């Protein structure tokens, strides 16, 4: 019998093997200072494109004031316990009611964390006789929720309606055998590519197939739609989304999440979500802070306008300079380049050290080998000066990538890793 840890000692994984070269700089970096368009990284000021603070709420004086007052009034512990036992308050109910109204649903339920809330919601919605159909590019929290499912599940090609219909046909045949139902899961906005899920086309399939639609709208909530209610509102199908999920970690610049649906569905979920039944309630300071942030989403459309002014300026500027942004239809701004992992390290170091630009880097195994993805998140707090500096920097790093500069610089790193 082998030691359980043998595999850990021998194989650190596709990302872990780079830890000695990457940790503290390329992964687990430390951004310092107030959350804003410019922060400090290793003592240098950088234009920050990796913070999901879409509306720029995180460091607003009025938001921080409410957060501070709530912390002073309630501390960081209240209410103690899970919602079902001792962690329920009038303010939790108020926030739920306001969220439900904002996203045009009958009811909503607060989740203490988005990731575990998504996992638990998927688990609660299905039993072993049911079938799940979901996008192959779904977020990790959805995949982990699906892994708990003891019944059949099918993946469809990313945003491919033909593939969706094919798998709905398979799911229908299976459901007829098991006597179960079908849950189809999509994202409102896919956070890596920036594409909107094809919700309008998916709900049209309800005329032919009997399924329920669950949408993770983490990146759409607060950014898309006439009022900011999300991707469903943007595409005119919010009423056809059976269970709607969004997190506070993006537009709300906070912690927590919620699900929204018909009242009877929410009543069922709040009694069956294991991650909420057996975990501490969302802390009061976060609830009070979320109420303030939601009020600003409702009453300050200028924040969303400023966000989209910046999104359009950045994305149009990059496209005008010949960069490949894929098919993003959201604030998420992916820039696709070709190169190895060592080249990607050299490129990002150049961006940060010599150009003062900080953005997230994504490489294999998240994307195919030989590709580099630089992911930028515009916010309402960015300026046109930030955007112009970034466009110039990206032109410079592309030239260095194409003329082989990064390949030469990275040769020593590749040799050290035996690549």
UniProtKB/TrEMBL annotation:
UniProt keyword annotation of Transferase present: yes
Requisite cofactors: pyridoxal 5'-phosphate
Superkingdom of the source species: Bacteria
Signal sequence interval, chain numbering: none
UniProt keyword annotations, A-Z: Transferase
Domain Aminotransferase class I/classII large stretches: 45-393
Presence of the UniProt keyword Metal-binding in the record: no
GO terms assigned for molecular function: pyridoxal phosphate binding; transferase activity
Xref: SUPFAM superfamilies: PLP-dependent transferases
Record protein name field: Glycine C-acetyltransferase
Lineage: Bacteria, Pseudomonadati, Bacteroidota, Flavobacteriia, Flavobacteriales
């Amino acid at each position: 019998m082998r030691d359980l840890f043998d595999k850990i000692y021998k194989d650190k994984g596709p990302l872990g093997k780079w830890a000695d070269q990457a940790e503290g700089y390329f992964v687990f970096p430390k951004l310092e200072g107030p959350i804003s368009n410019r922060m400090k990284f290793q003592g240098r000021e950088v234009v920050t494109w990796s913070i999901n603070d879409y509306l720029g709420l995180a460091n607003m004086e009025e938001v921080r004031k409410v957060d501070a007052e709530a912390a002073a009034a309630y501390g960081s512990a209240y209410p103690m316990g899970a919602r079902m036992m001792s962690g329920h308050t009038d303010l939790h109910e108020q926030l739920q009611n306001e969220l439900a109204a904002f996203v045009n649903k009958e009811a909503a339920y607060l989740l203490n964390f988005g990731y575990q809330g998504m996992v638990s919601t998927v688990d609660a919605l299905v039993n072993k006789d049911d079938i799940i159909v979901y996008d192959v590019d779904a977020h990790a929290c959805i995949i982990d929720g699906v892994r708990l499912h003891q019944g059949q599940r099918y993946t469809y090609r990313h945003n491919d309606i033909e593939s969706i219909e094919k798998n709905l046909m398979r799911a229908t045949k299976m459901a007829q055998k098991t006597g179960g139902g079908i849950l189809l899961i999509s994202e409102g906005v896919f956070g890596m590519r920036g594409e909107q899920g094809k919700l309008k086309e998916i709900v049209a399939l309800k005329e032919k197939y009997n399924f329920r639609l669950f949408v993770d709208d983490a990146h759409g909530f607060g950014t898309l739609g006439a009022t900011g209610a999300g991707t469903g509102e943007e595409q005119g199908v919010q009423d056809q989304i059976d269970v709607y999920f969004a997190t506070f970690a993006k537009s709300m610049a906070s912690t927590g999440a919620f699900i929204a649906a018909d009242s009877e569905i929410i009543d069922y979920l709040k009694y069956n979500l294991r991650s909420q039944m057996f975990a501490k309630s969302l802390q009061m300071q976060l609830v009070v802070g979320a109420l303030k942030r939601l009020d600003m989403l409702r009453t300050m459309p200028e924040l969303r306008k400023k966000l989209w002014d910046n999104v359009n300026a950045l994305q149009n500027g990059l496209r005008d300079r010949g960069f490949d942004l894929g098919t993003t239809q959201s604030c998420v701004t992916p820039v696709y380049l070709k190169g190895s992992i060592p080249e990607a390290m050299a490129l990002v170091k150049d961006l940060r050290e010599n150009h003062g630009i900080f953005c997230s880097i994504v490489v294999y195994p998240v994307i195919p080998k030989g590709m580099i993805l630089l992911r930028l998140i515009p916010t309402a707090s960015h300026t046109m000066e930030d955007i112009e500096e970034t466009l110039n920097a990206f032109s410079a790093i592309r030239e260095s990538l194409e003329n082989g500069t990064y390949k030469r610089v990275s040769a020593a790193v590749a040799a050290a890793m035996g690549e």
